[in-house]
Design goal:
heterodimer, A: 307 residues, alpha/beta, Rossmann fold, 2 domains, 7-stranded mixed sheet, B: 376 residues, alpha+beta, Dna Ligase, domain 1, D-amino Acid Aminotransferase, Chain A, domain 1, 6-stranded antiparallel sheet, 12 helices, elongated, ligase (chain A), nucleotide binding (chain A)
Chain lengths: 307, 376
Amino acid sequence: MAIFLTKESKVLVQGMTGGEGRKHTRRMLAAGTDVVGGVNPRKAGGTVDFELPGGANGSAGEPISLPVFGSVHEGVAATGADVTVVFVPPPFAKAAVHEAVDAGTGLVVVITEGIPVHDSVAFTSYARTRGTRVIGPNCPGLITPGQSDAGIIPADIARPGRVGLVSKSGTLTYQLMHELADIGFSTCVGIGGDPVIGTTHIDCLAAFQDDPETELVVLIGEIGGDAEERAAAYIRGHVTKPVVGYVAGFTAPEGRTMGHAGAIVSGSTGTARAKQAALEAAGVRVGVTPSETAALVREALGERPGG
Amino acid sequence: MDLYEHQARELFERHGIPVPRAEVTDSPREAREIARRLGGRAVVKAQVKTGGRGKAGGVKLAPDPAAAESTARQMLGADIRGHRVGTVMLAEPVDVEREFYVSYVLDRAAGGFLAIASAEGGTEIEETAATRPEAVARIPVDPARGVTSAVAAHIASAAGLPARTADVLIRLWQVLVREDALLVEVNPLVRTRDGRVLALDGKVTLDDNARFRQSRWGAEPREHTDPLEAEAAARGLTYVKLDGEVGVIGNGAGLVMSTLDVIAGRGARPADFLDIGGGASARTMADALFVVLADPAVKSVLVNVFGGITACDTVAEGILGALDAVHLTKPLVVRLDGNNAEAGRALLDRHAHPLIEQATTMDAAAHRAAELARAA
């Protein structure tokens, strides 16, 4: 079943005709994602061809030709798409998300990095009022291994399995997926490290708790903000499945302070140690390194070390 | 990007928030002239981006222009909580009757902005917020609606502020939105004995991501006190100098932070944080190595790359390319995994440099780099 994304998901790519969009659309197709088209008002009516990697015998892959629509609305009407992945540059990202929300897509995955926070505040709150889930911005997206990949997470790292993963950090997501490749994942969600994001650790914990295919959740955090502390409070009250945590940044230099207001808002220091303590108080076992975290997962699942 | 007090004051003034008369300078002689223009007496305020400035001697009242000059001379170049004073601001002294606190700040948890206001402003505001939360009003602002006069009146009354501060609250919101700020804080906002409302001191943090539409900001300020940090910034790298002996290069902030932790766990200290980012080129990798090796404190270097988008063979090419420009005298431990890892490892193997060794896991790599640093 997985969360948020399955093989039934039909994906439109906003910004498919740009360099990054094209590169990652090809990778998504290769991962088995049902990409049904792209959106670019200036190239509406055209198509983009993708050569996919060939089979094991070295034969050329089958070329796939995807339509380019003038708007998300048109794309949804023509294909029944229910997911969009956004690669458009920062100045246009807010309008792109609003367009996807207005077209009624259920999930908008915003890969774009460098979006002004006021724009993120505007589109995440707009999406919330309309019942659309936004993942990101500035995130690697999400993958349900063996079914669908929406974003830029390398599909070849992990097999389908019973661990759910939620992370602020892209490369740490890959590292943990790699360490636990043999056990496999239900869904891995990179929620992004920006100050304002559409989907939080808590949203993912809630979804994994309800997902029958997820037996255990790995939660990866890093210094700054108090998202991990809030996740810990949520776990205490709502999550019965085992959760294994990892927090990066014990050795990192102290970040800048945001006047008095930052501390007044959260009341948290945002340090790795504070996050670790909060998670452990909620019964989450926290690894000190990625490999120790992976070992804790194996132990909790009753696997032999290195199994 | 955090602004200096005098820059925040300027923004406030531009948006119609009343502020005391003031000028900024880096010259003691000019400080004397400014004090004269202000009427003789002046408050001399060191311009540093850190809290606790007053307690550290960074705010002083000069009774006359000569005192303003000597105070400015003392402050300029001095160190306040680790920050060198480059400029001072001289402001007209204000006869304060009451101090308030107002700010708009990003509330990450709610994904929006929060108005924070209190009738008990001043330097103890954080303590007040912690010990008597009821003295501090926190009101979420609907981003679609903003701070209208009704919203401002509500904030003022919830915090027990005089009704006339509502105008400041509205204008402060305009500063936040129009200037793409993440934080605007006035502390203290004061009522003077002659009945004026003035923003006496302020903090503003601007959103670096909005630079493309804020033409007035100009070029990104370079404020790297460390020459290596300046060098790295010039090469477009995210580099933070630390005080250890194991140089660290990796891809992705999370993985690099994690690498620092793993090294610390092996009893060594990281010498830096360097993130080559996603999809790095060979050139980026070579630049990274150049910067890290230029740090004389570095005794060994750990390159930890998990290729998602980044191709490991490109990283290997970058390492080998750097060897043409830099004479390698310190051992290098390389861990490549993920995208094109085998090609990258093979490339390094073929080159077989005596000071470069490879590790297959992050832990083993950190262990070896720490060991080499200790042996050096």
